Amino acid sequence: MLSETSNIKRALRAELRERRRILTTTEREEATAGFTAHLIALTSQHKARSVACYLSAPNEPNTRPFLNWAFANGVRTLLPITREDGLLDWAHGDGETETEGLFGMPEPVGELLGPIAINDVDLIIVPAAAIDGTGMRMGWGRGYFDKTLGSMQKCPPVFAVIYDDELLDSVPREVHDEPVNGVVTPTRIVTF
């Protein structure tokens, strides 16, 4: 049986998915320009030479222009690959070739690296459904990034990419949920 918190999360996720689904093409394009500029600025600010990031699905904040910039500017980029055991493998990928992963999400094609490959990055960029003012992250319910972040002994800065209206006063929290150090939105970078 699902807990009350789990049910609240499910309802909030459904609302957030719907908000993303109804964004216009113009709103998405404008947001993508903002995400890209802020992700580049964040990478430069942290002097990151290696970044873990995700390949965005159509209804997610678009990370692809940022990834293209990273590839073009020699920033080593690790991209996640979901495993059935709930962990993430990583691959460098070429920024062009991808496949459909476990849950229909895009994943890179490239040399498969194990879960510990992320330990060597300077900056981690994660997806999220919402973040609250304390940095608590609510993901999409599968726990992959919570497990990854929770298992790291020395975690570099972690930033979630969300739309402005997904930065909330509070999000429901469960014991396994992991916070982030900041968010990147189309209009700003917020550090907690």
UniProtKB/TrEMBL annotation:
<dbReference type="GO" id="GO:0030272">
    <property type="term" value="F:5-formyltetrahydrofolate cyclo-ligase activity"/>
</dbReference>
<comment type="similarity">
    <text>Belongs to the 5-formyltetrahydrofolate cyclo-ligase family.</text>
</comment>
<dbReference type="InterPro" id="IPR024185">
    <property type="entry name" value="FTHF_cligase-like_sf"/>
</dbReference>
<dbReference type="InterPro" id="IPR037171">
    <property type="entry name" value="NagB/RpiA_transferase-like"/>
</dbReference>
<keyword id="KW-0067">ATP-binding</keyword>
<keyword id="KW-0460">Magnesium</keyword>
<keyword id="KW-0436">Ligase</keyword>
<protein>
    <recommendedName>
        <fullName>5-formyltetrahydrofolate cyclo-ligase</fullName>
        <ecNumber>6.3.3.2</ecNumber>
    </recommendedName>
</protein>
<keyword id="KW-0479">Metal-binding</keyword>
<keyword id="KW-0547">Nucleotide-binding</keyword>
<dbReference type="Pfam" id="PF01812">
    <property type="entry name" value="5-FTHF_cyc-lig"/>
</dbReference>
<dbReference type="InterPro" id="IPR002698">
    <property type="entry name" value="FTHF_cligase"/>
</dbReference>
